[in-house]
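Sat 14:20. Reprocessing the chain from the morning session after the first attempt stalled halfway. Input below, unchanged.
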Amino acid sequence: MEGTPLHEAAPTERMESGMNVILLGPPGVGKGTQGVLLAEAKSWKHIATGDILRANRREGTPLGQEAQKYMDAGELVPDELIVAMVKETLAAMPGDQGVVFDGFPRTVPQAEALDLALEQLGRRVDRVVVLEADDDVLVKRIAGRRSCPDCGSVFNVYANAPKQEGVCDKCAAALVHRPDDNPETVQNRLDVYKAQTEPLIQFYQDRAGVMAKIPGEGGVDEIQQGILAAL
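Finished this time. Tokens:
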């Protein structure tokens, strides 16, 4: 008799507790906004590697100090350091705490390292949600994006404007328009995404029942409902 194998029922059973969800998508598709909303809706932990890196540097942890050496030298922080920070964050959480990974991993090697770290903690990737949108939509979103340099919150003047123009809703810091958030640089960023992250989508697509692709165009609430339905 054909049907859903029993071993594939586990992700659904764990959905409201220790589910581990990865949000992927091109620059400007709204991963940050949707990741925060999903985490708040489910009482899960929102994990963005930029936030973790800033926290480790601010607190002067051994991993943060090591990362600072690379940044001071103008070099990218190695994957192994980023994954170590993620693993340390996960290890400090209850085993049944759900997690939303926002834009991480970005490459297949990062995904393989994350798989190993999760396995060592008795976790696994339960669902990968890919947000999709046309390039012209992404260019407009990126041009309208405003970021908080203090707490990392992200707003958009078109789709998710702050309550007070130019001011972060969460910490009242002045929002900034990052130099790389302009139309002139977006095509290069999209090319990098296609080169690095689309193979990652194939990496997860090969796992039965894990991947869901969601339209990333429309209102914030509409997109969020699509993500929730995919879970």
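The radius of gyration is 18 Å.
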